[in-house]
Amino acid sequence: MTTTPKKKPASKKKTATKDKASANKPANKPANNNDKVWLKSYPDGVPEEISEPKHQSVGALIAASCDKFASRAAYTCMGKTITYGELKTYSAQVGVWLQSCGLDKGDRVAIMMPNVLQYPIAAAAILRAGYVVVNVNPLYTPRELEHQLKDSGAKAIFVLENFATTVQQVIDKTDVNHVCVATMGDMLELKGHLVNFVVRKVRKMVPEWSLPGHVSFKAALASGADAAFTDASCTHQDIAFLQYTGGTTGVSKGATLTNGNILANAEQIDVWLAALRRKETLPDQLVYICCLPLYHIFALTVNAIMGMDQGAHNILIPNPRDIPGFVKELGQHKFHILPGLNTLFNALLANEDFQKLDFSHMRLTIGGGMAVQRPVAERWQKLTGSSICEGYGLSETSPVATANRFDGSTFSGTIGLPVPSTDIDIRDDDGISLPLGEVGEICIRGPQVMAGYWNRPDETANVMTKDGYFRSGDMGFMDEDGYTRIVDRKKDMVLVSGFNVYPNEIEEVAVSHEGILEAAAVGVPDEHSGEVVKLFVVKADPAITEADVKSWCTDNLTNYKRPKYIEFRDELPKTNVGKILRRELRDTPETKSS
Q1: Which parts of 306-428 are beta strand (E)?
Q2: pLDDT computed for residue 370 by the predictor
Q3: Cα–Cα dist 267/285, whole Å
Q4: Which of 172, 149, 318 is nearest to 244 (CA)?
Q5: Measured between alpha carbons, how far is 139 from 518 in angstroms, rounded to an integer?
Q6: Which of 1, 393, 405, 482 is deepest in the core (most CB within 10 A)?
Q7: Would you place residue 4 in the very low, low, confident or very high pLDDT band (cuts 50, 70, 90)?
Q8: In this prediction, what percent of the chain has a pLDDT beyond 70?
Q9: Cα dihedral sign, 353-358-361-367
Q10: What is the pTM of this model?
Q11: Residue 587 — pLDDT band, cuts 50, 70, 90?
């Protein structure tokens, strides 16, 4: 497995870094390459290199923040707030339960929950106890969940009861021996009983399930209430998260993110905030809106890890797709920072009640996960007074690699500048660095780049260069000021509302249906989610219908991966050696207008 590139020592003078960068250039690097041209565009007060993280692990950061900000609000969800001090107590109690399960340091523990208070408690417990968090999308189908649990070798799982039936269907095929089941109302005190009744009986959101030997979340808390908890001793090299992604192929695999990776990226984003702090006075405690799921790397690092390091207050939104409910919650808080996706910004702008909110406290809107469209950004700024600051990253980069200036006042339409301690190099297919303005693959090097794919040395070797760059698969160019613009994707990945969808996986599911001979999946534009999946199908059974195909995909793929459009064809275009030409399908007029 490729090791994380070592971070360069902090430099006090920007001029010194350029000399050092020139001296370390690969032999094949042309003299007119970028040579860290982005440094001249850095805001005042932002260093070119981050300092060594002050904590040895994410668990240590959490424990220290809980002590430092003990009386502050840490997380609020559905009207209930827990303080940093309470978070430390609750996570220690759950940590005691985990340690009583006989797990060894480094064992993997899955979390299958939306944004509820139990998520940060469980994550903190896992990390403080020296285990590895495996984030699971709670909407996964049994097939998807089985793969992730088996591949990670997870020994335990925390799951919200709404999704326990999925766990039930696959647990016997995995190494999971310990299950903790939470309910929506667990942390809501008396109100929790009403919430659980509504969720179970009125909205019928909890399918029948049976997991013999499981422990309730409340029981896990209670079991550790009278026992002492000892934080594990971890280092920057120890793994903190397995963040599953398709990478550059369709097989879902875990990006191995070490404590050092996560801590470095949190520090990189935090020092990037220095520009905003210089521009205006920020409140002592920042209030973040956490509407993106914490199991997604964007919210995980930006909201949870960096936010906790700052002693910020995160408002958890369990279901941001419920726009009226989301807007009602926004109206109850004087929030300062709102990270989100283009699709979310667009949906909020269309809501009449959102248009009436008070945005006078908002200081920063961060766009990520997918491209922010200029019309959306312009409407957002006109309404809220806040420009959308777009960034770029991947699960493999913990995630932030580039960002626009947080002190900016207009939307740039680019993915911004490399954050401190990060090198961006634009390379051709032969790995040769290209001059400014020329389009090539965006390659990333920095302390936030993953240690590799979990148990996939071959896949790791495919994406990591010999000089420590991660090949993103995205095509773009850098301008003379150091700003990068994405123009295309080298890989066939489809980006649906910020989630990566890989054609290989969709096609494999499709052809497993006995009525389908061949299938090819491509992305087509969609005004709501950026892109959606279109599936081309060659029938093996003439009787198979569009409804049959969609039903099969519904049973085997989570919602954002399911094809929105199905097109039957007599044959699919192929190369001379029989490889399906997805690009030819994608470029047909019918597909472009779908």
Answers
A1: 313-316, 337-340, 364-367, 388-393, 400-403, 417-418, 423-427
A2: 78
A3: 17
A4: 149
A5: 27
A6: 393
A7: very low
A8: 92
A9: positive
A10: 0.85
A11: confident
